[in-house]
Predict the 3D structure of the following.
Amino acid sequence: MCVAVPAKVIEIEGTRAMVVVSGAKLHAQLELVPEAEVGDYVLVHAGFALQVMNAEEAEETLALLQEARQLA
């Protein structure tokens, strides 16, 4: 199963962003969402940001993922 997760953009350099997912800093490519800005949430899969998300939707998804981890 493949899962894309919401991540908050904290830094952008060219087409590469530093994002935070559950406290972990990762790099994500922004070629598919060149409109992304620092402070935005993006949906990340396999190192690529796939879409810009609104903060409410991202935080709700992150909460559900955390809840699922606790059930496992």
